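Hi there, hope your week has been kind to you so far. Do you reckon you could talk me through the fold, stretch by stretch? I've dropped the whole record in just underneath, so have a look:
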Amino acid sequence: MQVGAPRLEDRLGPGEPPYRSRGEAQVGRLLDRYGIPFLYEKPTLLREGNVPRTFYPDFTLPGYGNLIVEYAGMPDRGEYMARLQKKQNAYAAAGVRAVFLYPTDLKGPDWPGRVMQTIRRAYGQAPRVTIYPARSSAARGYGVSSFRSGGWPRYRH
């Protein structure tokens, strides 16, 4: 891990999944800091109309009733937002609870608390969560890897 490196890949710790964006990395690190286990891009089969389709949500939170957390990092792009709307509709039709976060949600000094409040509200109750002090990812090993066997999946959305 190289602090201040220009490429995201160079800033990730050895135990972190290969996040696709800085925003996803921020959300993943926040979940890890709060001790919330998650699955990154876990294949999820849903129906889009009458057609079965596999989605790859950014984060699935097993301890929160498989709540899905999606980071929508390009809200200024029409095509991207159209795909995101289809994903939102598929989740809603299947009764899947999901939280969609945007770049503005990760701004300001209080963004971690606001995001956690949004996640807890979507879950419907607040599970017991312990806040761990921030340390390097190498020292911590990012314990979420226990939810994946054979490494992190590398799927496309």
